[in-house]
Amino acid sequence: MTFVTNFLVLICTLVCGITAHAPAHASPIRLKDLVEFDGVRGNDLVGYGLVVGLNGSGDGIRNAPFTEEIMSNILERLGVNVTGEQFRPKNVAAVFVTASIPPFSRTGSQIDVTVSAIGDAKSLLGGTLVMTPLNAADGEIYAVAQGTVIAGGAAAEGDAGAVVQGVPTAGVIPSGARIEREIDFELSTLQTMRLALREPDFTTASRIELTINAEFGRPVALMLDPGTVRIDIAATRERSTAHALSRIENLLVEPERRARVVVDQRSGTIVMGEDVRISRVAVSQGNLTLRVEESPLVVQPNPFAQGETVVVPRTNAEIEEEPGIGLAEVRPGTSLSEVIAGLNALGVSPRDMIDILKSIKAAGALHAEFVVR
């Protein structure tokens, strides 16, 4: 009885009483959160180093010969001759060290680094990264990393078992690298600056152009395409490029978002935008369960009778249909959030809801980008 009542409520909501609400306007967003300034970017660094001081959880030298090679090179640079020596320490591990230089970082600044084991080390807990040069894509050294590794996991083992929580073979070193060389980029010499929209859109780019021109009172910005707006630095009449950009980046612009529905099948999560709309469509959903059970029966001949034992097959097959959603019609202009609210009122599970949305999209009634992960 409760199901029928809820179903009637859904039908009344979706068919009889829905009035399409006008989408609420998005809140204005700072320009710095909508665009990237051309040339103002970080640079990735990578290095190959050695973590020492591990409690027997390092690389097996026989299985990771590159660890022995880098350890020999470091010791020779320190004046220790290990040529021809046979050593099998278990407290060292070869690692990759990665970092990113933020834009406009200066010599002597410190940045965070990430350390990841590349051999068969079991844990980097308690280890110390030995001085490691970090190279950029041009092959030049821009920073040097060193420090104690903070791993994000734990590992323990005994004679007959082991347990691992998190990832103890990777960790970070906060402020673990010092910048030794600056990236060559002269912002003050730029005559024009391009703003790259993180989500290209004609309407948003046009609003950015109008907002910037209104701020300076003259044609300073020009929309080149849905993802690019060009700024004429000289036309801003500011003292420098940095002054012009500092005035531009805090301007408020109302972005235009595409209608989009994102579903995660593993967790049953559904995320949708406010502009998603559904055309007239009828929905019917139910669960069908098929059960087949085999119960073979063994038949034996009577005592002292001639015959043989046979197995008689016995099959029990049945089909069970659980209550689902009956035929419901959705009026044009109905928002997806209203449909989801109606389905929730009936107690539809998230996974069934995802299947319903897929079918509505396949029928061409869901007017939004449908992303399934």
TrEMBL record:
Q: Where in the cell is it found?
A: Bacterial flagellum basal body
Q: A Pfam family this protein belongs to? A: FlgI
**Signal peptide coordinates:** 1-26
Q: Which UniProt keywords apply?
A: Bacterial flagellum, Cell projection, Cilium, Flagellum, Periplasm, Signal
Q: Which InterPro entries match?
A: Flag_FlgI (IPR001782)
Please indicate which superkingdom the organism of origin belongs to.
Bacteria
Assign the protein's first listed, main location to one coarse class.
other
Quaternary structure and interacting proteins, as annotated: The basal body constitutes a major portion of the flagellar organelle and consists of four rings (L,P,S, and M) mounted on a central rod.
Q: PANTHER family in the record, alphabetically?
A: FLAGELLAR P-RING PERIPLASMIC PROTEIN FLGI, FLAGELLAR P-RING PROTEIN
Per the similarity annotation, which family is this? Answer: Belongs to the FlgI family.
According to its UniProt entry, the function of this protein is described as:
Assembles around the rod to form the L-ring and probably protects the motor/basal body from shearing forces during rotation.
Q: What is this protein called?
A: Flagellar P-ring protein
- Taxonomic placement: Bacteria, Pseudomonadati, Pseudomonadota, Alphaproteobacteria, Rhodobacterales
The gene name on file is flgI
